[in-house]
Amino acid sequence: MNDIACRTTRGPARETDTRSGGASASATSAACAEVEPRACDMPRERLRDAGPGALSDVELIVLLLGTGLPGHNVFDVARSLLARFGSLRAMLDAQPEEFAGVRGIGPAKAAQLLAVIELARRALSEKLRERPLVDSPGAVEDYLRLLIGGRPHEVFVCLFLDTRHRLIRSEESSRGSLTRMAVYPREIVRRALTLNAAGLIVAHNHPSGAVKPSASDRRLTRVLRDTLALVDVQLLDHLVIGTHETFSFARNGWD
């Protein structure tokens, strides 16, 4: 079995002047402490009255964070988060160290955000186990987009399926750079046999956001499909995950 390298184209706090009757720094902190809970209560009340769908992205983040900093309330922190990453999609794909540059996000709040993101991934993974994946292409794409869609480097993922095409296990097979990734078909075949998989869906992301498969993507798909067939494991699809779109080799006649 041949190994293939898959290539794609693609400031300090301001002091308050007390000489003219301005509030002292301690009074400012106390005022912020009083305002903070009320600021957080507003989206909480809206969620109770209208449901989570009625809340803005900022309000949902506010509920996750709970509190901000003196002089930098939780709404400011939530807006800073969105500004730092540019979108919810990018924030969901952020690595732990990327939160460090956002004022008001320390290790504890970063851990809260990462925990929520991981729970979302696991919830989607559970959903995939409930029914044959061939009957839920949208759920598969949603899961893969959350898993690898916004990564800054290429990642190759394998979904191993049983005889009824239900998910046995999802695994990251390899990762590479912005434009190159080494994928080893023999290792994927070995893992499929270990898990007693009858089928496989593979996917990789294009950090550029474009989903047009490269010549190397096409060659890898052919080799992997033929190699798996030798051990009676069916390659059901190879998906290329972009920012907003997905390319399916199966839906495009394996071309």
From TrEMBL:
GO terms for molecular function: metal ion binding; metallopeptidase activity. Residues 133-255 form the MPN domain. Coiled coil: none annotated. Keywords: Hydrolase, Metal-binding, Metalloprotease, Protease, Zinc. Gene3D superfamilies: 5' to 3' exonuclease, C-terminal subdomain (1.10.150.20), Cytidine Deaminase, domain 2 (3.40.140.10). GO terms for biological process: proteolysis. This is DNA replication and repair protein RadC. It comes from Paraburkholderia caballeronis.
